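Justification of computing resources. Each target in the renewal requires a structure prediction run like the one illustrated here; the chain below, 120 residues long, is used simply to show the kind of job we budget for.
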Amino acid sequence: MYKLNGDEIQVLQEEHIELDAAVPPTEELESMKPIRTYLKGPIEVGTTFDDWKIVEMNASVETPYQQFEDAVVIEQVGKDFVNRIYLVKDFGEVKRESMMSMEGEDEFVVTSSLETVTQP
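Resulting structure tokens:
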């Protein structure tokens, strides 16, 4: 679950829920504390939030669903890893990459990409 708060999208809950699960009552939603910030404005290269940074605008990104242009790329960099998320207007997150390097070994990469879109 997410919450819009000014120029931020905040994550309230990350657990998987059933598609037909009821939406919590407004009072419960309002009392939930954000876990982290998912995205913060202004949407431009250099904007930082938590340990993430917007690193690219108008990026091209290939997914099994289609090629996207104009993606916003956010990145989290640690000592031995880089996490990258590609966001596209009207679609949201279309690709996520986690790259980890360990001393003396090849880089390990985990990728999640948009494969299909269905309309309700």
